[in-house]
Amino acid sequence: MEIAKVLCLLTMAVSSLRFVASWPYDDSGFSKDTYLLPALPYGYGALEPHMDEATVKVHHQGHHAAYTAKMNAALKQWRSEAAGDKFANSSILNILQKLSHVPEKYRMTLRNNGGGYFNHAIYWACMSPKGARISPGLEKDIKDNFGTYENFKEQFTAKSLSLFGSGYVWLSRDQDGKLIISTTANQDSPVTERLHPILVIDIW
């Protein structure tokens, strides 16, 4: 297991307690006939020395691109078989949030590849070659929920080190707005559990 060394916080303040329409750099909150691979907000080598250019390329051009293509193929077939179905034609974010309602024929494919598309879009947005300051609102919420920022980092790091196999470690808001640290295996996404992710680290 390799843990990416870059651990970055979103600078955006998440003041709303409901799910927002979309996250930066992806179209997951919008219904699309075809979803495009989100462009990175920085160059492939911009995260060095924390993450090398080859690793970023493999994950973006290889893994993320493959998830995007397979998700699009599954959505296209499902939508062609369920013409006019509003749920089938809704956004991938909505589909992941209501994954149990997806026909069994497509559920696992969209769980894995829709999750892979969505999770990686957030992952890229959480990193910056210039670093970032935490917004005052988020900083206050971290202290309110974890006592201190150092306590949060210790708990987040411990979760990352304890995750067996591949998956993700998340900082999310629950439906009451409380910050929680959670893990998901493989390409499962916290939005399926009605959580709103604001920070993620990819474990592989």
Automatic annotation (TrEMBL):
Chain residues that bind Mn(2+): 59, 120, 202
Swiss-Prot/TrEMBL catalytic activity: 2 superoxide + 2 H(+) = H2O2 + O2
Domain of life assignment: Eukaryota
A Pfam family this chain is assigned to: Sod_Fe_N
Top-level EC class: oxidoreductase
One Gene Ontology MF term: metal ion binding
Residue intervals of the Manganese/iron superoxide dismutase C-terminal domain: 138-204
Stretches assigned to the Manganese/iron superoxide dismutase N-terminal domain: 34-128
Keywords: Manganese, Metal-binding, Oxidoreductase, Signal
Region forming the signal peptide: 1-22
EC number: 1.15.1.1
Single GO cellular component term: cytoplasm
Similarity comment text for this entry: Belongs to the iron/manganese superoxide dismutase family.
Function text: Destroys radicals which are normally produced within the cells and which are toxic to biological systems. Destroys superoxide anion radicals which are normally produced within the cells and which are toxic to biological systems.
Protein name from the UniProt record: Superoxide dismutase
Organism: Lingula anatina
